[in-house]
């Protein structure tokens, strides 16, 4: 597995386990709400993940960007679609999004390289 993807996945899993182990009702409900939000509905899960990706880029949350890129990858979103999402996020968020887009492209490339292995 790619180093960026492997490290992010391991860290996320470890920390989520610790957070959920605290048995805080509000945090558990937020995690549940997040999971439910991205399920198929009037909008397909792939569209919802692309929306999550765009908003995460605008908010400049690299962890969220990685998460949504992985979900987009799992849902077979194409590179062409991903770059359209990047373009929308950069227009909405401005040039401050460019460094986050660079990191997102690097992560997307690694995800795609994993698919080839």
List keywords for this structure.
single chain, 117 residues, mainly alpha, AhpD-like, 80% helix
How is this structure best described in words?
Helices cover 80% and strands 0% of the residues. The mean pLDDT is 96. It is built from six helices and no strands. The relative contact order is 0.14. The chain has 117 residues and is an all-alpha fold. It has one domain (3-116): AhpD-like (Up-down Bundle), CATH 1.20.1290. α3 runs antiparallel to α4, α3 runs parallel beside α5 and α4 runs parallel beside α6.
Class by SSE composition: mainly alpha
pLDDT below 50 for ≥5 consecutive residues: which ranges? none
The quaternary structure here is single chain
Helix content: over 70%
N to C succession of SSEs: HHHHHH
Number of domains: 1
Fraction of residues in β-strands:
under 5%
Describe the secondary structure blueprint for this structure.
Elements: H1 3-21, H2 25-37, H3 45-59, H4 62-74, H5 79-93, H6 98-116
Short description, anyone?
With 117 residues, the chain is mainly α. It has helices at 3-21, 25-37, 45-59, 62-74, 79-93, 98-116.
